[in-house]
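queue> pop job 88
queue> type: inverse folding (structure -> sequence)
queue> payload:
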């Protein structure tokens, strides 16, 4: 949550970068053939030109396997395949062509969405899928088995380093609904049913407001041990309690969607009922300084559902929004449970919001904006006008929407602009949406991982492969970067497509 992240960015570390040499090595590895290739070649007499072969890039004597046939290694570039010619080594490149869907195609050609539907009872709603070679991490030669092993290792590492029982150790013994909700979504995507159940029960027992103006919402942050007083400045002020911190909009959005999808995926009516309760709480008229979670006129989520502000002359929290909270694909699913608001219209408004709020040249977006998309200085963190920690989460929200079927060209354009803008920038620095540099620090590792998420939907290129490799390799240095790098890998692998 932006309103309490003013000290998150104090930490710095050296961001690893893919140098020209590393990038060249990556491309060379792709061209060398499938993982585990025997670079020494085969023994025996070399086959004649035109003999069928399967191991693209393998050598045998003076021959090499190209485009499904053995060819002389000394053959000129003129013998390269033509676009449309059949191939078998999905994802392999040759000159300006790439093997996709059994045929050589131009590297800029769009890939077809070939997501494998879930075999669960409700196939269309919460479909776990694996990334076919040539899409997502397939661009860098990763197989479905490799991806699954990687995600399992990353999950176990995150649990060991960042969790205390079912609670995410967000800051020095405290947890937040931001940290809990994203981890809960990851647990669902990776089919960690026991962990999901334990997290849900813990949040309901210790973070849920059962009375007062915030009844039905989750507390933004609490101490893991005391279940009440939050003990660090990250909570907004030292000694802040569960009661006076209030809720966090993004946490409600993610928890509700995870419960809805878990109910459908695991045929658990209790999760479905709990998601329906959350939606009722979001739209309920309130008093005592609290407001509904969604603005009634624009149908967009509010920064904080109350009538307070960060100080005299600042906008009231419920009169502006935050790009991290606008998740169109989530809103669209809610229409299956509730009609208190037109959730399909809320999804449409969210897509319009991103087109309006995103800078047309850089692809960046302010951390706080009006409902029409203009930057506004509303957050207590002081980062409201900047492309800050919540801003980078726009990559997750829009790529999830793209995967759900919203093939709006503006999403790809935003992805390409982000990749181009940050190609020569220090990721540990914070920028304004217009590209101007601020004096503030940013979480460079998390930013690097979000660029990998953007790269998963653009036409394959050297830059997109480098960004995907960086996401694959990234190791976070705090809960935020570890969580968002893991979440980014889960999304790029299409382990849970929300629709």
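queue> result:
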């Amino acid at each position: 949550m932006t309103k309490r992240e003013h000290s998150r960015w104090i930490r710095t570390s050296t961001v690893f970068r893919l140098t020209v040499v590393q990038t060249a090595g990556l491309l060379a590895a792709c061209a060398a053939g499938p993982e585990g290739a025997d670079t020494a070649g085969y023994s025996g007499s070399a086959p004649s030109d035109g003999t069928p072969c399967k191991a693209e890039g393998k050598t045998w004597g003076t021959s090499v396997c190209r485009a499904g046939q053995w060819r002389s290694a000394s053959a000129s570039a003129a013998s390269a395949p033509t676009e449309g010619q059949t191939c078998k080594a999905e994802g392999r490149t040759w000159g300006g062509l790439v093997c996709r869907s059994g045929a050589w195609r131009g590297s800029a050609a769009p890939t077809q969405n070939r997501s494998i539907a879930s075999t669960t009872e409700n196939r269309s709603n919460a479909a776990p899928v694996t990334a076919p070679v040539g899409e997502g991490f397939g661009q860098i030669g990763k197989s479905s088995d490799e991806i699954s092993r990687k995600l399992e290792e990353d999950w176990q590492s995150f649990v060991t380093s960042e969790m205390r029982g079912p609670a995410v150790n967000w800051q020095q013994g405290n947890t937040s609904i931001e940290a809990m909700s994203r981890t809960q979504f990851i647990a669902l995507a990776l089919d960690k049913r026991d962990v999901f159940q334990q997290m849900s029960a813990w949040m309901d027992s210790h973070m849920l407001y059962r009375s007062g103006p915030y009844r039905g919402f989750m507390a933004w942050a609490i101490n893991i041990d005391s279940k009440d007083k939050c003990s660090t400045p990250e909570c907004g002020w030292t000694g802040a309690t569960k009661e006076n911190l209030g809720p966090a909009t993004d946490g409600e959005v993610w928890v509700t969607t995870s419960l809805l999808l878990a109910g459908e995926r695991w045929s658990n009516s209790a999760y479905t009922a709990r998601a329906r309760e959350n939606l009722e709480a979001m739209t309920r008229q309130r008093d005592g300084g609290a407001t509904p979670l969604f603005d009634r006129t624009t149908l967009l989520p509010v920064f904080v559902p109350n009538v307070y502000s960060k100080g005299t002359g600042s906008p009231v929290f419920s009169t502006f929004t935050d790009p991290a909270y606008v998740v169109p694909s989530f809103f669209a699913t809610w229409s299956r449970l509730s009609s208190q608001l037109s959730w399909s219209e809320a999804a449409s408004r969210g897509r319009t919001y991103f087109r309006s709020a995103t800078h047309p040249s850089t692809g960046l977006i302010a951390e706080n904006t009006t409902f029409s998309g203009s930057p506004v200085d509303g957050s207590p963190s002081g980062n409201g006008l900047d492309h800050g920690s919540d801003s980078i989460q726009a990559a997750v929200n829009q790529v999830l929407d793209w995967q759900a079927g919203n093939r709006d060209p503006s999403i790809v354009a935003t992805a390409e602009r982000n990749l181009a803008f940050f190609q020569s920038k220090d990721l540990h620095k914070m920028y304004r949406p217009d590209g101007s540099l601020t004096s503030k620090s940013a979480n460079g590792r998390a930013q690097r991982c979000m660029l990998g998420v953007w790269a998963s939907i653009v036409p394959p290129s050297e830059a997109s492969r480098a960004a995907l490799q960086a996401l694959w390799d990234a190791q976070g240095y705090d809960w935020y970067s570890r969580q968002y790098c893991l979440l980014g890998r889960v999304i790029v692998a299409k382990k849970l497509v929300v629709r």
